[in-house]
Amino acid sequence: MQGVTHRTLTAIGVAAVAFSIAACGASPGQQSGQSSAPAAPAATAPPVVTAAPPTAAPPTAAPVQSSWIMPDLVGSNLQEAQDTIQRLTSFGIAVTTSHDATGAARQQVLDRNWKVCSQSVAPGETITTSTTIDFGAVKLEEAC
């Protein structure tokens, strides 16, 4: 570096520092650590407030029913009477049986061919899961 004096290098250094300070937003006369006059607040968008979606109450399980009222099924088709009890007691909780109401001890093999003449639990009485309901039945073409 011939022809460049120490004073010239110092001046170049000071100019570089001043440029750096100006680029950072400080004036060249400020010392490091000093704050400048308070800047005007920057325009910011208002905070976005979003409402949380309404939360549904946690699902509550329906209480398990443990008793029912016995319907009047006399005159019904035997299969329909059995299906009614199964639906009423949540698909198969109560037990139904049947017998030949004529006393001939015939088996009710095809329940659709029989009609109910009597029921062991009277209509309006309470039945539970441990109730056994017996239907007295005859063939459809027979009288009770």
TrEMBL record:
<feature type="signal peptide">
    <location>
        <begin position="1"/>
        <end position="25"/>
    </location>
</feature>
<feature type="region of interest" description="Disordered">
    <location>
        <begin position="28"/>
        <end position="63"/>
    </location>
</feature>
<protein>
    <submittedName>
        <fullName>PASTA domain-containing protein</fullName>
    </submittedName>
</protein>
<feature type="compositionally biased region" description="Low complexity">
    <location>
        <begin position="28"/>
        <end position="54"/>
    </location>
</feature>
<keyword id="KW-0732">Signal</keyword>
